[in-house]
Specification:
This protein has 120 residues and is mainly beta. 0% of the residues lie in helices and 53% in strands. The protein is globular, with a radius of gyration of 13 Å.
Amino acid sequence: QVQLVESGGGLVQAGGSLRLSCAASGRTFSISTMGWFRQAPGKEREFVGRVTWTTGRTYYADSVKGRFTISADNAKNTVYLQMNSLKPEDTAVYFCAAGSKTIVPPWDYWGQGTQVTVSS
C-alpha cells in the first residue's frame, strides 16, 4: 500500500502563488507516476498534471499550462505543485494520486485532498 498526504493549501488572493506538497509513504518503490487533480464544488474531479517518477517528465492540463509546475523529489518521496498566477476558478480541493504504471489511468492511490481558495 501507498499512503499520500497533501499539504500547503490555503487562502490566497488572485494573482498569488501557493505550493502544494504530496508526501508518499509505504511501498513507494511501486510508484511510477504521480499526479494532481482538483475538484471544485458541484463539479467533477479534474486532471491538473502528472510527473513520471523516474524521468521527471511532466504533462499538464491546458487550463493550468504555463501557470502550474509539478516537480518530484525522489529522495523525499514527495511531489510538489507550484501554482502561480492563481485565479478564482482555481479554487478547489486538490488531490494527489499515484499510479504503479507509467501509463495512467488507472490511478492506484489517492490522498485526502487539501483546500485551495483563491479570492478575487
